[in-house]
Amino acid sequence: MAWVVWIVVAGVLGLAELHTVTLVLGMLAVAALPAAVVAALDGSPVAQVATFAVASVLLLGVVRPVARRHRRSVGGLRTGTAALVGRQGVVVSAVDDRAGQVRIGGEVWSARLYAPGPSASAGSTVDILAIDGATALVLPMPSDDPPDQLTGRSS
Predict the structure, then answer these.
(1) Which residues pair with 107 in a beta bridge?
(2) Where are the domains of the chain?
(3) Which residues, 6+ apart, have CB-to-CB distance to 17 below 8 Å?
(4) Going by DSSP bridges, is the β-strand pair 101-104/135-140 parallel, antiparallel, or unpaired?
(5) What is the rounded distance in angstroms from the CA atom of residue 130 to the CA atom of residue 135?
(6) Whether the model pTM is above 0.70
(7) 155: pLDDT confidence band, cut at 50, 70 and 90?
(8) Band of the pLDDT at 38, cuts 50, 70, 90?
């Protein structure tokens, strides 16, 4: 009947973890389960407590740091077309608000401007803002050329 006590302890600790979100009580709840198994196998109270202590130390010392690191990690791995958003491409054929082509990495994509404006000429760099089907929606990058001192225009 001692195994029931360990199951109740695990349940109470698990519920308490839902309110604290520290991962400590959750690990202790999981550690109570091997102690319940020892109790169900008619282990002595000393063996039950020792099992709980060893499982607690292992979970808190090994699993908790790994779980905390994963909780703090930034976003997931982007794949497919989502991985292209935010990258830069090179214009292969002039891109306007209707059509054009850009090279993103090693692939040539059909493209059009994300917002109305001046077209991007071949060889210029664009930002990939979105992917609509098989078309990249792009925004031309500002020119890096310094403005001419007399006219104020880029050369």
Answers:
(1) 104
(2) 2-72, 80-140
(3) 23, 24, 25, 26, 29
(4) unpaired
(5) 9
(6) no
(7) very low
(8) very high
pLDDT tens, position by position, 111-131:
999 988 889 999 999 999 999
What's the 3-state SS for 112-147? Answer: EECCCCCCECCCCEEEEEEEECCEEEEEECCCCCCE
Q: Supply 22's token pair.
A: 């520290």
Residue 18 token pair: 């839902």
Q: Which of 61, 35, 30 is nearest to 46 (CA)?
A: 35
**Residue pointed to by tokens 């109740």:** 8
Instruction: Return d(Cα 110, Cα 25) in angstroms, integer.
Output: 53
Q: Spell out the long-range contacts of 10-17 with Cβ–Cβ below 8 A and sequence spacing 24 or more.
A: 10/36
Average model confidence (pLDDT) across the chain:
87
Q: Residue 132 has which token pair?
A: 């609509």
Structure tokens at 17: 């973890």
- CATH superfamily name and code, 80-140: Nucleic acid-binding proteins (2.40.50.140)
Query: What's the average model confidence in pLDDT over 57-80?
Result: 79
